[in-house]
Amino acid sequence: MTELAFATPSPSGAGGASRPTRTARWRQYAAPQRAYPLAARLMPWCYGLALLLGGLGLYIGLWLAPTDAQQGQVYRILFVHVPTAWLSMWLYLVMAAWAAVGWVWQTRLSFMLARALAPTGALLTALALWTGALWGQPTWGTWWVWDARLTSELILLFLYLGVMALQAAIDDTRRADRAGALLTLVGVVNVPVIYFSVQWWNTLHQGASISFKAAPSMDNAMLLGLLLASLGFWAYAAGAVLQRLRCLILEREADTAWVRQLPEVRA
After folding, report:
1. Does residue 77 contact residue 162 with C-beta atoms inside 8 Å?
2. Which among 31, 49, 1, 61 has a CA at the least distance from the CA of 224?
């Protein structure tokens, strides 16, 4: 299976000395052998930021932010629900992008990244649905309604689970990667349905919590807590995906010399 080729170094300086271009320096990480240590370096930063930003955001949202005049204390669930709902859609788009790259260029690392994203996306989608139900019961008087946004978010969870189940059901790794990529790309049409559902249909679900077209309507402490909590969840998702990517690299490259020489493998 082919990998992305390195870009030809461009000559610079006297004597025809060459230096790798910026594109070439980034493309070198398309090789699992180089992506593996890079993920190891980035993981602690991601988890550290997740702990710092997420903890601070939840502290502001759950304790310092004022009580909502209409919803009371129950609105504080949204400091977990909104970030996980945002991420559930974003991670699927990223997964679809890597699936498309893998499908077109047949790069092993792209398929591995798509696989690594699916479990984290499924977890955050399930968390978004669960916290939404916790918020909906006291607010709407029911745990669940077949609302357009809730239903399309549930379909998103089924897509994540379906991609993982399809890949696990096929023994041949290359065929499993391509089948999972195809299902991922077909299911990407559901993401804009989730996002625009409150505009396209008359739904119970409220509109966007933050709009780029208008000034924020919430208290500054609420907004700060929500943004920090969101950044914390994003950092956690990045760390979890990188950790799972390392596991996939070790699994698929187990027979290569560079993996057998790793200290964690030799031990």
Report:
1. no
2. 61
Element (H, E) at 10: strand 10-11
Tokens 């790798």 correspond to 20
Q: Which pLDDT belongs to residue 266? A: 78
Whether 20 shows a pLDDT value over 70: the answer reads: no
Rounded Cα gap, residues 121 and 84, in angstroms: 9
Contact 78, 248 (CB under 8 A): no
Asked if 81 contacts 132 with a C-beta cutoff of 8 angstroms, the reply is yes
pLDDT computed for residue 6 by the predictor: 34
DSSP letters for 219-263: -HHHHHHHHHHHHHHHHHHHHHHHHHHHHHHHHHTTTSHHHHTSH
Dig out the tokens for 145 from the structure: 């309604």
Q: In this structure, are residues 211 and 158 in contact, taking their beta carbons and an 8 Å threshold? A: no
Q: What is the dihedral of CA 229, 233, 238, 243, to 10 degrees?
A: 130
Question: Where do the H-state alpha helices sit in 65-189?
Answer: 78-105, 108-140, 148-169, 173-187
Q: What are the structure tokens assigned to 1, written together?
A: 């299976």
Distance (Å, whole) CA 246 – CA 85: 26
**17: pLDDT strictly greater than 50:** no
Whether residue 86 contacts residue 127, with contact meaning beta carbons closer than 8 Å, is answered with no
| Mean pLDDT, residues 198-206 | 65
**25 vs 158, which has greater pLDDT?**
158
Cα–chain-centroid distance for residue 133?
22
